Amino acid sequence: MKIYMIILDGAADRKIEMLGNKTPLQVANTPSLDTLVKRGKQTLITVIDKNITPESDSGSMALLSYDPKIYYPGRGTLEGIGTGFIPEGYNYVAFRINFASYDEKLGTLDRRTARGLEDRELQMLAKDITENVDVSKFNVSFKLLAFGHHRGILVFYSKQEKLSGNISNTDPGFRKNGVWGTPVKNYEPKPLDCLALDEKEESKLTANIVNYFIKQSQKILAKSEVNRKRIEKGELPANYLIFRDGGQKPKQMPQFEEKFGLTLSMYGQLPAENAIAKLIGAKFTFSKSLELQLDKDFLINAERILVADEANVKFIHIKGPDEPGHDNKPKEKVEAIEFIDKYFLSNLIKDIKEDDIVVVTCDHATPCELKIHSTDKVPVLISGGNIQNDGSTKFDEENASRGNLPIEKAIDIFPYIIKEIFDDKNKRN
What is the pTM of this model? Predict the structure, then answer.
């Protein structure tokens, strides 16, 4: 028996007028998902809790049974670990950054996330910053990695100075609340100054370093050949860095195999997912760049690789539905769900064995009306093995709300599978 956990990133949504007062999952034509539904049970679950908005990393952590309220160290730390950017023996602080579009005359952000950047352009911008920004006067060094349209990871590290993640975000779209980044509704589109969130000298120092780095990198980006050409073509420049989710050393986490007696193999696109795999002793494979997340050949090949993997539990995070949610494009979100159903799930159904278990769920909801993640409950389906159908006919929020799968939170999924399916099978055998 194998367990397949399929994460449809951000697929959960709210009813949308454009879709006839239905959600994208309700509207999508998903015959493969429907087949799995008829072999299983579903319900709606809270990913973390009603007051914490999940990101893909904290959502994935919860889905793998690790409570983010205990173990989550902040997105910056996970991304730093996942890229191998955390240097041994150094004090450090790691951040998520975005390359943003800034209007210097108005002092406002045209976009928090610069759109349309090719990877070649993004790497050139990162190279310009790495080669020309100097923070040695603070007795620190830095590493910068740019990836995925506009994203980046930045780590400051030092042997002489203590550094702190307890500083505010400069990204106006997310407020720092402990280790959590909380989305801000109707925010003023102006980058913020970085502030220490306590009176410690290391927090004040770190905030000063961030503010200095932003000013220096802004000068470099303004002179960039990439941005000069973008402006000539009538495109917004990627001329400003915004920081969020500063974090430091994580707590030690129980190993997945020791916890459940099962080996785990994870497939995803994010360095933060790689970090989770490292922390819980799982194998990790970067499945595809974000640019090609809905590539037909990728989905077909990913399914083949997943089935061939010898691990007991196989976890794959498919990013497709999330971006249309952020861009308030309901029809594109429907298409993304249908694409995954056609080229990934249809093949999985053919290739799995009779006693295999398939879990389908979301790491968070990304409602089109909000254009950001939310704390909304998400559907979870457990299908296969000895599970009896609960009357559900389709994988969506409405059917899940009527399902009878006795799970309330994401962290409950694997304990339920082990107790109700694995243990029951062993008793019968």
Answer: 0.85
